[in-house]
């Protein structure tokens, strides 16, 4: 939990050009980190705390903290979701991540984004996103959708089907616009090594 929180906060520090130790002060300046920290704690309690008494006490605390931050920031992240390290929320407001959603590392979200369950019967499901996915303001990814890594989703797009790696999506319903993907839009401290790997592949 703590390692993921540090990596989450370091995204903000890196984007400002600050050293990694400055993560201690990031929550003071960036309130968008509060629901992320609350999610990490609640997820840890839900899946890792096995002693019944402590589990119940901590679940009450995590429930209240989640509701508080949801009210304050309008960011709702289910503690049952699985989110990789380095998630970045650019602006809080009307963001929803459902309980069965799975998100890779270094994903960037903007205001108005919904990652939610949809469908009926056996077709019901929640999104699965790869690493380094950029999701523009107002975009919706709903249903049993599998998205690859390095994908760019344009503002107000609605994604309801699978798409491969390194694609740029846009429209309602979303379709592939080009194959540039999210390279250059996702920023984190070790991204230079990742970009070098991409160059070798190409």
UniProtKB/TrEMBL annotation:
SUPFAM superfamilies assigned to the protein according to its UniProt record, in alphabetical order: Trimeric LpxA-like enzymes
InterPro entries linked: LbH_SAT, Ser_O-AcTrfase, Trimer_LpxA-like_sf
EC number: 2.3.1.30
Recorded catalytic activity of this chain's protein: L-serine + acetyl-CoA = O-acetyl-L-serine + CoA
GO cellular component: cytoplasm
One of the protein's GO biological processes: cysteine biosynthetic process from serine
Enzyme class label: transferase
Alphabetically ordered keywords of this record: Acyltransferase, Membrane, Transferase, Transmembrane, Transmembrane helix
Segments traversing the membrane: 21-41
Gene3D superfamilies: Hexapeptide repeat proteins
CDD domains membership: LbH_SAT
GO MF annotations, alphabetized: serine O-acetyltransferase activity
Name of the protein described by the UniProt record: Serine acetyltransferase
Native source species: Pontibacter fetidus
